[in-house]
Amino acid sequence: MKKTNILIDCHVFDGNFQGTTSYLKGLCTELIHDKTKHFFLAAQNVQHLESIFGPHDNVTFLKYKSKNKFVRLLIDIPNLIRNHKIDYAHFQYVVPPVKACKYIVTIHDVLFLDFPQYFPSLYKIKNRFLFNWSIKHSNIVLTVSNYSRQRIEKHFGQFNVAVTPNAVDPIFFESYDKTRVRKENLEKFGISDYFVFVSRWEPRKNHDGLLRAFVEGNFYKNHELVLVGNEAIPNKKYDEHYASLPDEIKVKVKVLSNIGFKDLVQIVRGATIAAYPSIAEGFGIPPLESVAARIPTVCSNTTAMSEFTFIDQGLFDPYNIPELIQKINDCLHNWPEAEHKSHEVFSQYSWKNSARVFLKAIDEDQKASAASN
């Protein structure tokens, strides 16, 4: 029986670690256990991919010739599809303009359509066209939450979207020595008793709201605020608020960028509180990671994050600063059933389940094609 050849565009592994990287890492790690498929993982830094996924009989690592995204989509990927007789090619958000095989696209969110005030005009115009094009020219459309599925249905009229939820890397569930982790974090990053927020910088991420709560709740007197992530879209409200603060508070706010995955795990583990005040998300992996690591967690209750019911008393309205302050105080003094919450994340969000949905979608597409021939 001929194996199904699946190309997976892994160019996100060539850049900084982000949500789509976590998604592909977790999904591909499970997919490659299916020996009836041959997976072609493509990126420029092939050695990095090999170090993540390791050698497998049904995995081939392919190297892109160019870093340029236009060359990748227009030349590199179509050539790889032809040369390796690819049956399906999987992309994040945007597929190539020329269809060289069957396409699978994961649209993680369409937040720019529901919250346009948080996105630049050109971004909105460009991505509405590109997402619509990609959805219409893909045989299989995936997303990561029921919320995102509903929004894709509303905005693009696509009603057969399969949900492959994000999950959590197993390392976050492992036991660890909190005292040793904090000692190492103090030596490496100069942080000890701190609240952590893991997210790239965009206005919708609400860094300014968390900073306000940190200051107005007087948490700076006993804690630090550690903001982990790279800038994507400048947040003027945050910048203005931070600039107005006295030096005694400014020194309690630490910004860490270009943080690798291993360091990220240690920073999450060492936190006193993990906060996720984002106003809008298509999913939101960081609060799952902190709950998995048994860290008291406060999280916004909007959009896809409303599905995180296991966070329970840690959910809050991101527009309500007094409520956020109260939730932080509550979690500082009482975070019950940490192990139970961690287990709920483990049972509800599994890369095995997401891989099963992915493979089922391919199987159903192949059966439909066979029936029509």
TrEMBL record:
One example GO MF annotation: glycosyltransferase activity
Gene3D superfamilies recorded: Glycogen Phosphorylase B
Transmembrane segments: none
Glycosyltransferase subfamily 4-like N-terminal domain span: 22-170
Domain Glycosyl transferase family: start-end pairs: 188-339
CDD domains linked: GT4_MtfB-like (cd03809)
Pfam families: Glyco_transf_4, Glycos_transf_1
Protein keywords: Transferase
PANTHER family: GLYCOSYLTRANSFERASE WBBK-RELATED
UniProt name for this protein: Glycosyltransferase family 4 protein
